[in-house]
Amino acid sequence: MTEITMRVWRGDQNGGAFENYVMPKVEGEVVLDVIHRIQATTAPDLAVRWNCKAGKCGSCSAEINGKPRLLCMTRVDSLPDGETVTVTPMRAFPVIRDLATDVSFNFEMARKVPAFNPIPRPADGYRMQQIDVERGQEFRKCIECFMCQDVCHVIRDHEENKLKYAGPRFFIRYAELEMHPLDTNDRRELVREKMGLGMCNITKCCTEVCPEHIKITDNAIIPLKERVVDADFDPVAWLGRKILRRTKRTSEEAAVQPD
Amino acid sequence: MTTVENSATRVDNSHTPVVLGGTRGGPDQPTLRTDRWWLAPVITVAILSSFVIYATWAAFVNKDYYAGATMHRDLISPFYSPCLTQGCLTTGASMGGHVLNWWTISPALLILIFPLGFRMTCYYYRRAYYRSFWWAPPSCSVSDAHKSYSGESKFPLIMQNVHRYFFYFGLIFNVLLTYDAIVAFNQPGIGIGVTVGTLVLVINATLLWLYSLSCHACRHLCGGQVRSFAAHPIRAKLWKFVTPLNAKHMQFAWVSLFFVAFTDIYVRLVASGTISDFRLF
Q1: From residue A178, how far is each of A24, A26, A165, A171, A221 by CA, in Å?
Q2: Can you spell out the DSSP letters for chain B?
Q3: Which residues is A118 bridged to in the sheet?
Q4: Does the residue B157 lie in any domain?
Q5: Which of A5, A7, A12, A161 has the highest number of chain B CBs within 10 A, making it the mutation to test binding with B?
Q6: Which one of A120, B73, B196, B233 counts the least CB within 10 Å of its CB?
Q7: Is B116 within 8 Å of B48 (Cβ atoms)?
Q8: Cβ-defined contact of A65 to B13 (cutoff 8 Å)
Q9: By CA distance, what is B221's nearest residue in A?
Q10: What is the b/e burial string over A150-173, where b = at least 16 CB atoms within 10 angstroms of the residue's CB?
């Protein structure tokens, strides 16, 4: 029977080490299956977060051979044959234990997103055309695995930026709201000043790792950047606002949560 | 079988409360990737450096950029279009030419500012050179090479936001190069016909149009900036037209870059008499 060597990070926020586990190779398994067999046989204290085993809950995010992947969606036979498989926790977040990380930074950023603030309800109810519904549909596929946050070097390599950078997952939320035809808020100043949109240098790693294949950079971040250009860096747009007496919301005004 | 590496750093796995903003734990190697992640940045550096070196030489050399009436052709290099000197004025390539007598060095230095600015601020090229030249980061899941990072939020990189203005200028150059391609069908002393040079100029202009129309700023200006497509049906149609092109922006960026250099080389070889421009019909 062929074997597979799993090199798994064991430790917590204070440090840790790799441990190697040699397991029999079973056809059709995903990496999470092998981790579960390690738990069941040699390391019952190995911590791993998982839930659906179907790539839809976003719980089992980790790094396989250095790349953010869902453990449940990575088939063992898709990895280089005969090589040791390295499994580590997501690098951008503090390790709780072994492969489980504390992703509460993301929930802090989620709280800061000013919620959908629609126009007053018309007498015949809210209506949206299909073309506008479809536009935001892509962003709602997000399963909040936070691998895009993990791979983004702005916070992955610079912990200090977490205070001022929402990250790709929340840029798609801001983009979805800004593209919503019924929403009344204007979050352009907010994403520039407080959410660090300018720090994204569009290296597209978030798009590369997204298990839902959301075009995060092309369809959310760059459109947001272009909207910020409209608001702050385009003199013709500025002149147009002056002539048409249109205003834009400050970051403080935009940050107010609706009732 | 279980083995332990780096056992000196192995700690007790009893639960320790996590402190945000502090140390993260986990491996501290710059990357654990085992594939050839360095290959793409190396190729990008090689190609972009080669282009910059060639374009610099071609811009300063200031000769052999126009094959005119003496060769029964009307071919001008894209690096020297629109025609700004006497050297390409004989039959009026590029909108008839407007000679700048006071400008004594290569006109390409004036012309290339705009296409160069368009490509330098292009969202795709930014990705390419931030990764390959600036190593921020060199590849996904590989540590970037800088201790601190502010991205495009401060000067000078905040100037990348002028991209849409370079896009506007790029459109003007596309019109000029399209005109060049059309006049290349005229072969002075022979008549209307098609040569290899004609096809080269036509393909070059087409690729530059595809590169410009697939630009992210173009997609935004066409319709991306509206909140409701239903309320702006014409802009929605424009947006739907350019969106598939936008998905191929990277490919258009590379192919048009190669071809603009190839077009310059071809015209240069014809103008210098090194090769003759084969007439197809």
Answers
A1: 51, 47, 18, 10, 12
A2: -EEESSGGG----S-----TTS---S--SS----S-TTHHHHHHHHHHHHHHHHHHHHHHH--S-EE-GGGT--EE-GGG-S--SGGGTTTTTTTT----TT--S-THHHHTHHHHHHHHT-HHHHHHHHHHTS-SSSSTTS--S-SS--GGGSTTGGGGGGHHHHHHHHHHHHHHHHHHHHHTTEETTTEE--BHHHHHHHHHHHHHHHHHHT-HHHHIIIIIT-S-STT-HHHHHHHHHHHHHHHTHHHHHHHHHHHHHHHHHHHHHHHTTSS---B--
A3: A183
A4: yes
A5: A12
A6: A120
A7: no
A8: no
A9: A226
A10: bbbbbbbbbbebbeebbbbbbbbb
**Structural domain containing residue B92:** 35-194+260-271
**B241 falls within a domain:** no
Confidence of residue B2 (pLDDT cuts 50, 70, 90): low
Spatial distance between the Cα atoms of A162 and B178, rounded to a whole number of angstroms: 48
CB atoms inside a 10 Å sphere around CB B246: 23
Q: Looking at chain B from residue 67 to 86, which residues have their Cβ under 8 Å from any Cβ of chain A?
A: none
Count of the separate structural domains present in chain B: 1
Interface of B with A in 31-70 (CB under 8 A): 31-35
Q: Which residues contact B175 (CB under 8 A, 6 or more apart)?
A: none
Does the interface ipTM go beyond 0.90? yes
Q: Is residue B179 part of a domain?
A: yes
Q: Which residue in A9, A21, A67 is closest to B26 by CB distance? A: A9
Contact B220 A226 (CB under 8 A): yes
Position A259 scores a pLDDT of: 76
- CA A128 to each of CA A119, A180, B225, B227: distance values in angstroms, whole numbers, following the listed order: 12, 9, 18, 12
Spacing of C-alpha B134 from chain mean position: 17
Cis check: omega of the bond before A168, within 30 degrees of 0: no
What is the residue type of A156?
R
Question: Can you count the helices (H) and strands (E) in chain A?
Answer: 11, 7
- Please name the residue of chain B whose CA is at the shortest distance from the CA of residue A183: B227
Q: Is the pTM of this model over 0.95?
A: no
Domains and CATH numbers, chain A: 3-101 (3.10.20.30), 104-255 (1.10.1060.10)
Q: Do B18 and A18 touch (CB under 8 A)?
A: no
Cα(B178)–Cα(B201) distance, integer angstroms: 8
Residue B23 lies in a domain: no
Taking chain A, what is the end-to-end CA distance rounded to the nearest angstrom?
63
CA B238 to chain centre: 23
